[in-house]
Structures are given as C-alpha cells and as structure tokens.
Amino acid sequence: MQHNLGFCRSCWTMPGRFMFSLVILSLIFTPALILITQWPKAANWIHNIVLKKVQLYPQSAGYKTWIDSPVTTTRAYRLFNVTNYMTVMSSPNSPIEIQETDPFMYKLLIRKNDIEWFNDNTEVTYTVERFFERLGIFDKTLLEGEGAFVNIPRVLFRTRFDRKPDQNFFAGSGLNVFNYTHAVDLIEGFNSATFSLIRSNMMGPNTEKYGYIYRYNTSRGYNYTIRTGFNDSVDKGRMLDYKTEYNPTRLAAINVFQADFCRPVQLRYSQTIPMFGFDAVHEYVLRLVDYETCSHMNETCEESVYLDISKCFSDKDKHESTIYFEPITGTPIKAQLRIQLNTNTYIDRIKVDRYGNAKETDSRGVKRVIPMFWIDQTITLNKSTLRRLRVANRILRIGRRIYETIKVGHMIVAFLLCLAVIAFFEAMHYVRQHRSIAKLTTKSRNPETSGRRTSVSDNLLA
C-alpha cells in the first residue's frame, strides 16, 4: 500500500496539470487568434509572394516561365470536303454538301526571340517563332485521304477580277474553284499552277508552298510589344503593338491578338465558376472582332460574320471559345479556341459536255460562302504549375473561411469553456482521489481488518 501511495505522490499535482493544460490551449488558440485578427495582412502577404513568382522583369522567376511557358498547346484541323463540287460549279446556287475529315492533330511550340525591355521594364518587345509538329503518327487514312477542297490560291487570285472575269483569269487559274487533292497537303504545303501566279505577290514567311500551317511553321513574322505589369500585375500581358512585314498595325489595350487571322480576339467576361480544383475561376469568352468596322475595340463591337481571306478577316466561330483564369495571378488555366473559317468567293459557272469536258460560260459569278476548315486549339497549363496554384488557393480559401466564420469573441468564449471543462474534470478527479485516500485511511485504522490481513498473509507464507 505504501508503494501505491508513493506513486500518487509522484504524480503531477492538480495546479501543475492545470497549468500544463493552459499552456497546451494557449499553443492551440494563440495562432488561431492571430490568424483571425491579422488575416487581411496575412492574405496580402501570401498574395504578394505568389505574384512575385509571376512578375515579369529581366531574369525573374516570372521571366523564366514566360520564356518557357508551362503549357501544352495542341491544334486540330478538320477540312471540309465538298462532295458535290461538280454540281456546285455547274449550278452555283445549288446546296453545298460537305463532309468533314478526321482531325489532323498538331503540337504547337512557341519561342520568343529578340527580347528588348523599355520604360523601366514596364514594356517588352519580342518576336515569336512558331513550330508545328505532328501529334503522334498519322495513319494511312489521314495521309491518303482525298477530297475536293476550296482552292485558296485561286480564291486569292479571283479577288483581282470583277464579277465577270475576262479570259486571262481562266487561262491562268483554270475553271475549278475546288482542288481535288490530299487533305494533308493543304495543311502542310503544296504547289499548283495557280499558286505560281500569286506567289510573287504574297507577303509574309514561307512562300515556297501554300499550306494552312506551312506558311507559319518556323517563321518569325510576328513582333509584339506588351506591358509587363511590373508596377501593376493587372496590366501584365496587355498588348500595345503588333507588327509584321506585311500587316503593320498599332492597337492599344488589346488582350489577345490572333496572328493566324490577322485580327484581335477580344476577351469578354462570362462568369465565375468552380473548376479545375479551384473554388472560383474566371471564364472569359473569345470574340473575333472586325477592327476595320469597330476601331475603338470595346465590348460593344460586333463579331465578324465572314472571312474575307483577301483581307485576312476571321469568320464567326461555330462553337464557344473560352479561357479560364486562375483568380490570384490571372494565369490562364485552360483555353479552348474553336473557329470555323469560310471564304466568301465567286463561283464561276461552267458547262460540262457529254464527254466530261468543262468550259466557261458568259454567266456572272455567284458569290457563295464556302466552308474551308475548322480549328480546335487547346492550351492547357501543366500539372506541376497547376498544383502549386491550387495549394496557394487552398491556403487562402481556408484562411478566409476561418476569418469569416470565427470571430474574436467566439475564440475567447471557446478558450474559457475549455478552461472550465478542464477545471471541472480536475475538480472531479480531486474529489474522487480524496475519497479514495479517506477510505484507505479508515481501513488501515480498523484493527479487525488489519488482523484479518495479517492472518491471510501468514497462511500464504505457511
């Protein structure tokens, strides 16, 4: 019994245990109390750390990710094969029947060159070099697929003549508005008699052939000047100037410029929605705007309806194009650009004799909108960068929720309640302990109980 009592004496006393509990509670509640009272400053500090990572100035972390963008860009081309092209040329007002090809998938890489900084690093000028490469292996169906597609060189050449062209036009370009050929050649480059007529007058890079991506592949025909957002992150990426050797313009405060179509792409706010593991991302819808009819370039500008390829306009997109922005840094998480390009050109009626020979007629050309191809481009932020942004957003989200739901008064009440609970259990423990000691003391003073214990001990020893 003395051993048990000695063990109890070595235990913490009630004041000691109470002080220990108080220290533990302080370690738990003090950071939470600081978080609640100082959260706006803490959130601003976290914001500044994140924004510093993407700030654009020479040799900064943001500069490195700007040069080597952590995104994957893929582009799908689907060409429109006019299956009744002979009927359309014989009777230009006939309905156009089209068949869409399987997608030709390409990966697009962009390299920035000739970088120069101006105005205390608030503006940067650079050239863009683009590289297209096939995404995966093209199967036999893609490589050997043929059809009747819009003859773009002939369409360009046709713009030089009136509604009823003279014989020189037909002598140089032939009668066929459509080019029956392999679809892949229209994308990656081809030569034709009509192309040779306009080649000397073509402006821009890669004029040895004509192709939808051939002209831009490995080219340096694009020169941009943008704001870096050095003093204001909201201004980062705002374009001040875009120039090429064949299409000089100066457009202020345009968010995106689509070099493929030589026209600006407006970003218009659509909605804020939860997506990609974030509570909120800002969705912006892309709108193609005709700069010649709406030079002030604000949200009231109407979208372009037709593509006039002689002036390099873009047509109305078939489906919605969207960009999703991460709300802290404004980093694009995902962009989807979907555009169908058509040409509004003259179809010159032909006559086909019983032997299958085609001849021109004296009829005037009929202007028709003919589908050319469909582009579906996807730009996706790499997983590692996306993961880091999610962590920052998660920290800010949890901190904001704690700050908005728990007040200082609540913290004080919770702290006092915890102390009261600890004090109550300590008091209960103290009372039970003293009752146990009192019982043991009473039994030790009772002679009968003491003698009975001695007898039992003697019997055991015997």
UniProtKB/TrEMBL annotation:
One of its GO terms (cellular component) is caveola. It comes from Didymodactylos carnosus. InterPro entries: CD36_fam (IPR002159). Keywords: Cell membrane, Disulfide bond, Glycoprotein, Membrane, Receptor, Transmembrane, Transmembrane helix. The chain crosses the membrane at residues 20-39, 408-431. One of its GO terms (molecular function) is scavenger receptor activity. It is found in: Cell membrane; Membrane, Caveola. Residues 442-462 are annotated as: Disordered. Belongs to the CD36 family. This is Scavenger receptor class B member 1. It is a multi-pass membrane protein.
